[in-house]
């Protein structure tokens, strides 16, 4: 337990470092790539603070649910830093969702019928709007899967293990029922969700730390910022003592 308390202290320190790093990070909002990078980092920062709060309460499963989008953000952040053309592809993802909502509103599908959430859309969108957006989405081409992004960025290990592993708690899979009860003297007793897997708290916390430190590392490398020494000290607790490059990348 003392080890977990020490890890929590290091996680708090890492989150403070990440906050300080973002405050010093330049951002050109007129550059789609730079804008997307900074937005993803801000998402990672906010969620990491929430994960820290949950882990302090030993709320294991809720922490793992929040870690899943963190991994997705990290993969997309790496792709943005690697590929100058990905920013527009990433932005275009939203058009597919907009098309779905507008089609529902214009065609008054069962999903939209008598649904107050669609009322405002029904008043302003037209069939011409729908046709225009359909053409735009078609021109943008198919969305790139997260698996493909992980493959392109060399992060399939992040996709296959933690991302896929946390699918069950994120989607209310029946396998999660095992984490809601224990059997004592042949009697089934309901327990707080995930409290029978407390041994997973330290590795879950380590993964949360890993994401923010690696996110800072790849961004610093892209922005040519030197944070190597600070990263080295924070990584010691994780056993990341292999030599980083001048920007802190492993």
Description:
Helix content is 67%, strand content 3%. With 250 residues, it is mainly alpha-helical. The protein has one domain (2-238). A two-stranded antiparallel sheet has the order 1-2. A hairpin with a 2-residue loop joins strand 1 and strand 2 (187-190). The model is unreliable at 240-246 (pLDDT under 50).
Q: Give start-end ranges of low-pLDDT stretches.
A: 240-246
Summarize the helix and strand pattern as letters. HHHHHHHHHEEHH
List the total number of helices: 11
Mean pLDDT: 88
Give the strand content: under 5%
Number of strands: 2
Helix content: 55-70%
What structural class results from the helix and strand content?
mainly alpha
List the helices and strands and how they pair.
Elements: H1 2-23, H2 32-56, H3 60-82, H4 86-107, H5 116-124, H6 127-140, H7 146-152, H8 156-165, H9 167-170, E1 181-184, E2 187-190, H10 201-223, H11 228-235
Antiparallel strand pairs: 1-2
Spell out the key features of this protein.
250 residues, flat, 11 helices, 2 strands, single chain, mainly alpha, 3% strand, two-stranded antiparallel ribbon
Short description:
The chain has 250 residues and is mainly alpha-helical. It has one domain. Helix content is 67%, strand content 3%.
């Amino acid at each position: 337990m003392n080890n977990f308390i020490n890890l929590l202290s290091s996680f708090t320190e890492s989150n403070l470092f990440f906050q300080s790093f973002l405050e010093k990070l330049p951002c050109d909002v007129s550059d789609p790539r730079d804008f997307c990078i900074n937005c993803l980092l801000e998402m990672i920062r906010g969620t990491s603070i929430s994960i820290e709060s949950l882990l302090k309460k030993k709320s294991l499963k809720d922490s793992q649910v929040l870690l899943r989008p963190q991994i997705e953000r990290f993969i997309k952040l790496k792709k943005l830093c690697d590929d100058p053309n990905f920013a527009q592809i990433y932005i275009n993802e939203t058009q597919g969702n907009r098309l779905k909502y507008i089609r529902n509103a214009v065609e008054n599908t069962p999903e939209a019928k008598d649904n107050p959430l669609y009322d405002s859309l029904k008043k302003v969108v037209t069939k011409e709007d729908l046709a225009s957006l359909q053409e735009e989405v078609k021109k943008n081409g198919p969305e790139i899967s997260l698996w493909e992004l992980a493959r392109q960025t060399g992060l399939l290990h992040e996709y296959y293990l933690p991302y896929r592993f946390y699918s069950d708690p994120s989607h209310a899979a029946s396998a999660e029922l095992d984490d809601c009860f224990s059997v004592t003297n042949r009697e089934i007793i309901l327990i707080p969700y995930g409290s029978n897997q407390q041994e997973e708290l330290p590795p879950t916390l380590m993964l949360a730390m890993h994401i923010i430190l690696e996110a800072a590392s790849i961004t610093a490398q892209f922005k040519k910022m030197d944070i190597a020494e600070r990263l080295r000290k924070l990584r010691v607790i994780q056993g990341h003592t292999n030599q980083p490059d001048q920007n802190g990348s492993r």
